[in-house]
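Good morning C.,

I know you're traveling, so I'll keep this short. The sequence:
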Amino acid sequence: MKTTVCATLFTAASVLWTSTPAAHGDVVSAWSFNALDGESTTFQADTGAGTLDATSVAGGLGVYAGSQMNASDGIPAGLAIGVRGSSMNDRHLELTFSQRGAVELSFAFRSTPSGFDENLIQALDGDQWVSLASFGSGLADGAWHQVSVVLPDSDGVGRVRLLLGGAESGSGTLRLDNLRISAISSPGTILACGGGCLGARSRRR
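The tokens, ready to paste straight into the viewer:
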């Protein structure tokens, strides 16, 4: 049985969790994952400048069928990056990108019933990782979902990581696709939950 707990955001970051695409501003960095080779563990952005480092999850990294959810115009479903196995709990994928002011992180994800549903979005603040929000709670259902979060202002380099958790078996997976960093002009502070809630981890029992 899976119990889902709703709570507030960890910070004043604005989060939208929905199963439909959201509007985007100018793209700072974007990864479609359609050119995955099944061997690399670091990935340069397809659009803009940025790096996704998946070295921490190299032992569970895989290539899966993707989605058009959250994709830029004209980008086909193609491929998605994925992480498999409970041994990857408490491991992460890290994003590094140029950032001036507030930006929005958005991506599509899909978790299997025994997969990762206690995941954190964290930003580097000085020398500490600060949790902004969680995603996946109540949505380990094998369907694609979308998450968006406004990141704290930065005047240089932005660093964000997705810290994985909640996988219960060696076959549990999490897919990620169409990851985007987009510029925004005035971040809000309203939380919207669609098909689940952000800001709290779930517990299976």
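Safe travels,
E.
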